Amino acid sequence: MLCSFSVLSSEKNLSVKGDLSQGGLVVGKSPIGTKIKLNDKNILVSPKGQFFLGFTHTAKPNQVLKATFPSGKTAEYMLNIKQRDYHTQYIEGLSKRKVLPTPFDLKRIKKENIALRKAFARLSKTRLMKDIKFSWPTEGTITGSYGTSRVLNGVPKKAHLAVDIANPVGTIVHAAASGKILFVHEGMFFNGKTVIIDHGLNLASVYIHLDNITVKLGDLVNKGDDIGAIGRTGRTTGPHLHWELRLGRIKLDPKLAVESMSRIFFEP
Fold this sequence. Notes:
- By secondary structure, the chain is mostly beta strands.
- The protein is 12% helix and 44% strand.
- It folds into 2 domains: 15-80; 88-263, Glucose Permease (Domain IIA) (Distorted Sandwich), CATH 2.70.70.10.
- The protein contains 3 helices and 21 strands.
């Protein structure tokens, strides 16, 4: 559910725009020095007053946005989050170890998860995107949707909090938005070859199952720059890009971000 509202207080204008849905990303602009909370949780705000709000795939319908302006005055806004229905996806043909890892595999997975957590802990607290718009990182057919329950080789797994885009191995993958390369891995157990781009303000995009990687740690990229190619590395049954969008620990729906952010513009 697309939202766009501006509140004229006795101080200045506060704007919130984006998709008020489970998995949605919302962009806000507040007077410089304003403190923002969502359900009593502090939200990171840039020096220029910009901030992101993200909602999990199970977010409750009623959310409270609170702004404390530089003068000390406060205002609260009720956000109605659209609830979504998710289906179940059954996938067969995976290697047994990729569904039921061995003790040796689990040790490797644990180390890789620690590396990922450390990477996400380094996300920039300032804005890195030149504009707040996402584009599709590659062409292809969507074969996996955000929020679906996954049953792999008959074994129920966690919800799929990403979008899968299928196309032949070697199809170019582009940066969905400008930012800085935060993480590069040449072969994770589940993810295969992986790239993470830091977009600032705790926002990151993740590109998984790549065939090759053409960027390195610390590179600055613009939206549309090549970062690699579709592959079938890690846990896959065929070549595709697994594309995630994360705001801190919250995994968002990239499809919603592409559709809603295309209509939003804030000055850098």
